[in-house]
Amino acid sequence: MNSNNENAPCPDDADTTGSDDPQWLEACRREEAIRELLGRSAGDRLRTSDVEDVALDLGISRATLYRLVAIYRETPTVEALQPKPRGRSKGALALDKSRHKLIRQTIREVYLKPQRPTLTHLVEQIHLRFVQHGWPLPDRRTIKTRVDDIERRLVARKRKDKRAIKATTPVPGEYKASRPLEVVQIDHTLVDLIVVHEETREPLARPWLTLAIDVFTRMITGFHLSMDPPSRLSVSLCVLHGVYDKTAWLQEREIDATWPVAGLPEAFHVDNGADFRSKAFIRGCRNEGVDIIWRPPGEPHYGGHIERLIGTMMGQMHLLPGTSFGNPIERGSYDPKKNSAMSLRELECFLGWEIAGGYHDRIHSTLMRSPLAVWREHEARINLRMPHDRMAFWVSLLPEAYRTLRPDGVWLHGLPYWSNVLSADLGGAKRELLVKYDPRDISRIFVQRPSGRFVEARSRDLTCPSISLREWKLRRRETRAQARAEREPNQWITTAKAKRRIVDDAIRKTAQARRDPQPKNKISVDDEGFGSLKGIDSRTPSILEIAEKQRDR
């Protein structure tokens, strides 16, 4: 029994066209008729009678049929034979060249500007120019069609629309890593929160946050929170926080969570800011064999991992009192300064909990696992590399100053520092010594000896607390302000006038005496009354006077 049913008739209700579009159905009918016509012909010549019969069946002229046959011979598909819609083709210009040119010129001069004028403003300007030429006004849809025909990327660039530029810019690449600590990305952000003074609880300003993330595991390697704008210092302190063990840091802030990330990465991936181009940062990384990879200019998507992390952290800030939110629309009538309640130190503890106890343990949308679980999985195979000389690496990234070694120590920030080791260098050659300091803790500094090695020097004031440089400067300003407030407000003016009057009188008297050289009797100082104790009661008080004074007290 023959099972081949290729030539079997189709059921009456079977759809052999693949569509119910009238134009498609007509194209199928034309294709079938032309295919049969070409099958009956011998070579390229068609019999006139056959052409007339097929044209009559299709309801078209012979010229149209000949044209369709030529098209089919070149492109033997059904689509090539679809009837063209009547009327003006899409994109055809209904206006003459002069009016079309005027519309395009007005769009370029009025609409494609950084001020981003509206379409209504553009229509008004085009109508005004058409009136000046005495032409009939074009319809708004005609103008909108011309605007829509311009490339969106060109419109976004001319109007300096960052959101539109981002939406029309392809971002095919991103940085990827194959192992932990292969690539660590670092970046800064202005925190969406206003912090308060530690003691007065008065609102201050929004702090800056520097974050570092491991690209492979998405673990945060370290962070630094400061009231100062991004700088070489904030980068260095973030790097130091990420490289060293954080157990003591967590215990000091009473954070009951694990943060196992430590060690030097193979490379830092950063943007092209001046803070990442500093000599200290480059030299410190180069000395320890850490590469620095700068993002391609104008390609922010290559730092997508750290950008998304910043967005995640700012989402947590929006839940705290004193948040400024992401923009004024979200903020609404909420007053961040009035509602601010967290100090910088409290915010740092909050971030420590959020990172070590929250973010690391949450399931990451890309990893489909928690960052901590991915780190634990590869932890045994991580080639943990610490700085060769911990002290040298530590101080290489710290800010520096030059000071002279004095008998009472090294003075920095208005404080004296001393180490017994410096005693041997006191009588040496007179020169300034390189001093490194940690602005987070001014109770100690690091002084470079003539041998090149650093020694730790402590504050001579043993009661000096481990406070930050910013806190110390703030306290000094407050002390000075208090001292100025305790002074008599106008006493210095009265004193200055009196001293000026005495000097002026002395000059006048001396000049007058020199103009009148007549000899005068020598007058002793005591005779003038200034050498004696006039006005001063120099008598020895009697016993009764002493008793009366004691009784009055």
TrEMBL record:
GO:BP terms for this protein? Answer: DNA integration
Instruction: List, in alphabetical order, the Gene Ontology terms for molecular function in this entry.
Output: nucleic acid binding
Q: Which domain of life is it from?
A: Bacteria
Q: Name one Pfam family in it.
A: Mu-transpos_C
Give me the ranges of the annotated region Disordered: 1-22, 509-553
Biased-composition ranges, Basic and acidic residues, are 509-525
Q: Where is the Integrase catalytic domain?
A: 176-379
User: Which keywords fit this entry according to its UniProt record?
Assistant: Plasmid
Instruction: From the Swiss-Prot or TrEMBL record, give the protein name.
Output: Transposase
Q: What species was this sequence derived from?
A: Methylocystis rosea
